[in-house]
Write a structure and sequence with these properties.
Layout lengths: L1 E4 L5 H13 L3 E4 L11 H6 L7 E4 L2 E4 L1 H11 L10 H27 L11 H24 L10 H14 L9 H11 L2 H8 L7 H11 L1
Parallel strand pairs: 1-2
Antiparallel strand pairs: 1-3, 3-4
Helix pairs in contact: 1-3, 1-6, 1-8, 4-5, 4-6, 5-7
Bound molecules: glutathione (GSH).
Length: 221
């Protein structure tokens, strides 16, 4: 049985919960991080010296870093379902996973931290404006790819879609300027219909304010 340490409102934990649901792998979860604490305890730091969630344990494997966990689970369970067997599609899944991590996710995190997680008087408007532009440029790149491909890996859904899907969902819930990217929108519509996405990601309401964020964290765990 896989154990996951993390809170459900963490986007990085959500990637892992979505992956487990896609693969139909049973797991238990320990509420750690945010208001639940526990991530600076000695036992936790032995698993992840960074003190961050998610962490998983699967038999003799204990690991952190959400994208690595998504890859590991995709290779370990039902290989070929989320991890493409065809080397060309695998290459695309890997490429776009790295791309989202470097090009899209940092911009979304800056907007998110400076709006939902920070009271208005402490927000950095210049950083938000810069991040908004970076997110828009990144989404135009994704839109070009999705104009020619149904999924990031090409013909089928893969782990390459999971990391982008989790971050795009968060981005769509933020109050910020967004581009017109019809192919990304169409791809996201298909993502939103996936049962595993609902279980891992969209069943957790998105917050607009710090108060909402804290309430949702308490309620969702
Ligand atoms: N690169 C790491 C980042 C992990 C990370 O930043 N986790 C955040 C939640 S999204 C965290 O643990 N924050 C501290 C907390 O929840 O107390 C990953 O992808 O797993």
């Amino acid at each position: 049985m896989v154990t996951v340490w993390g809170r459900r409102n963490s986007v990085n934990v959500q990637k892992v919960l979505w992956t487990l649901a896609e693969l139909d792998v049973p797991f238990t979860r320990e509420k750690v991080g945010g208001s639940f604490g526990g991530n600076r305890d000695a036992d936790f730091l032995r698993m992840n010296p960074m003190g961050l969630v998610p962490v998983i344990r699967d038999g003799d494997v204990t690991m952190f870093e959400s994208n690595a966990i998504v890859r590991y689970l995709s290779a370990r369970y039902r290989s070929g379902v989320l991890r493409p067997d065809d080397h060309r599609h695998l290459a695309m899944a890997e490429q776009w996973m790295e791309w989202q991590h470097n090009a899209f996710a940092p911009a979304v995190s800056v907007i998110f931290m400076n709006t939902v997680r920070t009271p208005p008087e402490k927000r950095n408007a210049a950083a938000v404006a810069d991040a908004e532009n970076k997110a828009i440029e990144a989404l135009k790149v994704a839109d070009g790819h999705l104009a020619r491909n149904d999924w990031f890996a090409g013909p089928a859904f893969s782990f390459g879609d999971i990391v982008m899907g989790a971050f795009l969902w968060r981005y769509m819930g933020l109050d910020c300027t967004k581009p017109d990217v019809p192919h990304v929108r169409e791809w996201m519509d298909a993502i939103e219909k996936r049962e595993a996405f609902k279980l891992g990601v969209s069943d957790v309401p998105r917050a607009k304010t710090l108060e909402e964020w804290n309430r949702i964290e308490r309620e969702e765990g």
